[in-house]
Amino acid sequence: IEQEESSYDYVFKLVVVGDSGVGKTNLLGRFVHDAFDFASKSTIGLDLTIKNMEIKGKRVRAQIWDTAGQERYRSITKRYYRGSVGALLVYDITKRESFDNLGRWLNELRINEAHPDSLVMLVGNKSDLDSQRAVTQEEAMAYAEKNGLMFMETSALESINVEKAFESLIHNIF
Ligand code: GTP
């Protein structure tokens, strides 16, 4: 146990939240394994992924909780928001509804005691599907600014901005 503990300097918790089907599991899969799954199954409850990194000379261990977007798991997943210092709040740029629901997710993070200084990175995923776009970048940027969120558009499929989204969130936490 001692050895385990000395293998990193900091450990912290992140959560990935947003409507079902926006690509949360695939963003994590791209970030951690550089993989993408065309036929990924909807997450049941939640999954924990550990990612070890070095930031500013410190060994950092991120515990990243991939949560199910489906409503029926909400009562389970929201318990895991507690104490998280960062969240990736994901919508699908081709699904207007997933953008319209952002307020609900922000509210859930707040009332379920994410850390008070917790940072949120708003992520517009599936940027590869630009021809089916239902949310403009300008609108999302304005929403992020109004709510004090960072913002980035990503594609888990084409591996665009995925590392950047996770890493800028994590760097800003430190
Ligand atoms: P829940 O587990 O139900 O909350 O869904 P999720 O948000 O984890 O979504 P998931 O990662 O399972 O992806 C849903 C579907 O979108 C899958 O068919 C993915 O292959 C697809 N998908 C995910 N990311 C992208 C992307 O960047 N571009 C495109 N074109 N499809 C994507």
Question: How is the topology of this model organized?
Answer:
Blueprint: H1 2-6, E1 10-17, H2 24-33, E2 46-55, E3 58-67, H3 74-77, E4 86-92, H4 96-100, H5 102-111, E5 119-125, H6 137-147, E6 150-153, H7 162-173
Parallel strand pairs: 1-3, 1-4, 4-5, 5-6
Antiparallel strand pairs: 2-3
The structure holds guanosine-5'-triphosphate.
Number of strands: 6
Order of strands in the sheet with most strands: 2-3-1-4-5-6
Beta percentage is 25-35%
Largest sheet: 6 strands, mixed
Instruction: Summarize the helix and strand pattern as letters.
Output: HEHEEHEHHEHEH
Notes on the structure:
The chain is α/β, with parallel strands linked by helices and 174 residues long. It has helices at residues 2-6, 24-33, 74-77, 96-100, 102-111, 137-147, 162-173; strands at 10-17, 46-55, 58-67, 86-92, 119-125, 150-153. Strands 2-3-1-4-5-6 form a 6-stranded mixed β-sheet, sandwiched between helices. The model has no long low-confidence stretch (mean pLDDT 92). Bound molecules: guanosine-5'-triphosphate. Guanosine-5'-triphosphate binds at residues 20-26, 37-38, 40, 42-43, 68-70, 125-126, 128-129, 155-157.
Give a short summary of the structure.
By secondary structure, the protein is an alpha/beta fold. The protein has helices spanning 2-6, 24-33, 74-77, 96-100, 102-111, 137-147, 162-173; strands at residues 10-17, 46-55, 58-67, 86-92, 119-125, 150-153. A six-stranded mixed beta sheet has the order 2-3-1-4-5-6, with helices on both faces.
